[in-house]
Amino acid sequence: MFKQLLDEKSFKEGRRITVGEVSQDIGISRATLTRIANQPGYNTNTDTLSALCDYFDCEPNELLKRVL
Where is the HTH cro/C1-type domain positioned along the sequence (predicted)? Predict the structure, then answer.
């Protein structure tokens, strides 16, 4: 879901947005964002989710996917 939101934001802004840029803008480490993007079921905290929701102007359900 993170990658999809990143692609959508890049398209809307007409430029490439990198994970590193998101990391700098929201103050979350690049490693954490990479894990969120690449590891299904990665456990993160609500502060990180809130920062990502603010950055992407979205709701948590747009970032999260239930993994069984």
Answer: 15-63
Looking at the domain 2-63, which fold is it?
434 Repressor (Amino-terminal Domain) (1.10.260)
Q: Which residues contact 51 (CB under 8 A, 6 or more apart)?
A: 26, 27, 28
What are 40-64's pLDDT values in tens digits?
888 889 999 999 999 999 999 888 8
- Distance, CA of 40 to CA of 9 (rounded, Å): 21
Q: How far is 3 from 12, CA to CA, in rounded Å?
A: 14
Boundaries of every domain in the chain:
2-63
27: left (phi over 0), alpha (psi -120 to 50) or beta: left
Structure-token pair, residue 26: 């929201």
6 by DSSP, 3-state: which? helix
pTM across the whole model: 0.82
